[in-house]
Amino acid sequence: MSAPSTGKFGSRIGFILAAAGSAIGLGNIWRFPYTAGENGGAAFVLVYLGFVALIGIPVLLAELSIGRASGKNPVGAFETLDPKRGSKWPWVGSLGVLTGFGILSFYSVIAGWTLSYLWRALSGEFASAMSPEQSDVIFKQIISSPVEVVVMAGVFLLLTAVVVRGGVSGGIERAAKVLMPMFFVVLLVLAVRALTLPGGGAGVTFLFEPDFSKLSGAAVMSALGQALFSLSLGMGAMITYGSYLQKQEPLGLAGVSVALFDTAIAVLAGLIIFPALFSVGAEPSAGPGLVFVAMPAIFDQLPMGTAFGVAFYALLAVAALTSTISLLEVVVAYLVGERGWNREKAVWVVTGTCFLLAIPSALSQGAVDIQLFGQSFLDLMNILFGNVSLSLGALLIAVFAGWRWGADKALAEMKGMPMGGLWAVAIRYVCPLAIAGIMIYILVTGNFF
Ligand code: PHE
C-alpha cells in the first residue's frame, strides 16, 4: 500500500471530477427520487432546481473560495480568514465536521444496501421479470437482516478508509477520472430504456407537471436540504476540496460545471426511476426503498439485463464511495490539520467510531424497532444532519463569505468570475434571507417532517 500523502489535485479536470464525485452519489440516485416522490413530484422538483441555482451555486463558489484562500480544513479555514482572537466563526467549521461524521454514519448504511444488491445482481437474481411486490419482498428481506446490513455498512466504511488513507491525489482523483464518466453512460442507457417502457410517460408527467397545492412547508425545507445535500454543501466538503485546488485555477467555471453535472444526474435518475415505477404501476411515495424497489423492473427489459444490473449497482457503489471519501476526508483533514494527528490514526479512529454510530441506523430499517420522535433512527439522522444541519451551515457560510470575510475578497479568490456582481448579491442577500426564512418558518410551524 502506498504511504499516506495529501497534496493538491494534479489537474483541473481531476479536481472537477473529484468534486463532482463528492456531489454525485446516493443523494442523486437514492435520495432525490424518493424525496421527490414523497413530496408529490414536479412542484418539489422545480423548487429544488430553483434552490440549486439561487443558493447551491453561490454557496458552492463561496466554499471553494474559502477553501482555496485559506488552504485549510473547515475549522482552520475560518481561523485563517478571520484571525481575530476569540472569533466564533471556526465553530461553523466544527459544526461541519460533526455533520460530515453524522452523514457518513447513515450514508454508509444505504451504500451497504447497494453492495447487497450488487451481490444479488451478480448472482443473476434480476434476470427474470419481477413484479413490484416481489421486488419489495427482496428489499425488505435485505434491510431487515441484522447481520447483512451491519456487515455491509462496515465493509463500505472500510473501503472508504482505505482510499482516504492514500490521500487526495492518489486515490480520489484517479478513481473519479475513469468511473464517473462510465456511470453517466450507463444511466443514459437506462433512461432511454425506461422512457420507452409502456406507460413510462406518466413518470415524466409526475416529474415535470407541477401541482403546487401539494407543496407543504416541510416539502420546501426538504427541497433546500436536498439541493445542499446533493451538492455536498453546508458542511465544509467543498471547503476541504477547494483547499486542495491549485492557486491559479479559476473557480467559477469549475464550480458551475460541478453543479450542472450533479443536477443533470439527479434529473436523469428521476427519468429512469419514475417511468419504471409508473410502467409497473408502483407508488412513487414508497420512501427510502424507492430506487431499490424500482430498478429491478428495468433490468429484465434490457438485452444483457444482468450485465446492466451489475454495472448499475457497481457504479452506484463507486459513486457512493467518491462521496463517502469526501465526508471522511473532511473529518480527517480537521484532525490532521487542527489536532496534529497523523493521517493513519485519524482515518482509523474516525472510521471505527462512525461504524458504531452506523449500527443503530442500519438496524432501524426492519431488524430492530429503533424510533425517536416517530421517525426511524436512520430517517432522523438523515433529517437532522442531511437537512437541518446543512441548511444552518450554508446560512452561516453565506453570511461569512458575503459579510465577514467579504464578497470582494471571495471574488478576488475566484480569479475572474463572470457575473461576479450577481454572485455577490446572491451570497449577501438571497442565500441568507431565503435559508433563514425557511428555517424560521419550519421552527414556528413545527412542521419538521
Ligand atoms: N453529495 C453527496 C450525494 O449526493 C452526499 C454528500 C453530502 C457528500 C455532503 C459530502 C457532503 O450523494
Task: Kindly describe this structure.
The radius of gyration is 21 Å and the shape is globular. The chain is an all-alpha fold. It has helices at 12-23, 26-38, 42-70, 74-81, 90-122, 132-143, 146-165, 168-195, 201-208, 217-230, 237-243, 251-280, 290-294, 296-299, 305-339, 343-363, 377-404, 407-414, 420-445; strands at residues 371-372, 375-376. The chain has one domain (12-445): Hydantoin permease. The chain has 19 helices and two strands. The protein is 76% helix and 1% strand. Bound molecules: phenylalanine (PHE). Residues 22-23, 25-28, 103, 229-230, 232, 235, 237, 323, 326-327 line the site of phenylalanine.
Write a brief caption for the model.
The protein is mainly alpha-helical and 449 residues long.
> Roughly what percent helix?
over 70%
| Integer-rounded radius of gyration | 21 Å
The total of helices stands at 19
Largest sheet: 2 strands, antiparallel
Q: Supply the number of structural domains.
A: 1
User: How are strands sequenced across the largest beta sheet?
Assistant: 1-2
Shape: globular
Strand content: under 5%
SSE order: HHHHHHHHHHHHHHHHEEHHH
CATH domain fold name: Hydantoin permease
Bound molecules: phenylalanine
> What distance separates the N and C termini?
45 Å
Number of strands: 2
Low-confidence stretches are 1-5
Q: Any idea of the CATH class?
A: Mainly Alpha
Which structural class is indicated by helix and strand composition?
Answer: mainly alpha
Arithmetic mean of pLDDT: 91
CATH architecture term: Orthogonal Bundle
